[in-house]
Amino acid sequence: VQLQAFGGGLVQPGGSLRLSCATSEGTFSGYTVGWFRQAPGKEREFVAGIFRWNINSLYYKDSVKGRFTISRDVARKTVYLQMNSLKPEDTAVYYCAASSRVILSTLQLASSYHYWGQGTLVTVSS
Fold first, then answer.
1. SS3 (DSSP) at 90
2. Tens-place pLDDT, residues 74-98
3. Are 96 and 34 spatial neighbours (Cβ–Cβ below 8 Å)?
C-alpha cells in the first residue's frame, strides 16, 4: 500500500483545513488508517483513526475531539481529516498510516502501522 498525504498549509487560528490520504495502489479495505502528527522536538502522536475500515469505528485524540473529523471515500480510496477550529498547538507535520494488522488496543501506537505517507505540514499561526 502506497500512501500520499496532502492538503497541509498555513492557516490562522480558528481556521480549517482538510487533509487527504490517498492510496494509488491496492485498497484500504480491511485496513486501519490513522492520522498522526509530529511537532518539532516532540514525538509522533496519534490524532485520529478508522479501525479496520469501519466507518462506525472512529477514534480521536482527546484534544481534537469535536474539532477534527476523520472520514473516508471508498470509491476514491481516500481518507480525509477535516480540521476545524485550529489552534497554534495543532502545528505539526501530519502523516497518514495504514496497516491490516492493527488491534484495537494498539490503535494509537505509531509502531502498529506498516505503511506511511510522506507527511504534510500544517502551520497554525496569525
1. helix
2. 888 999 999 999 999 999 999 999 9
3. yes
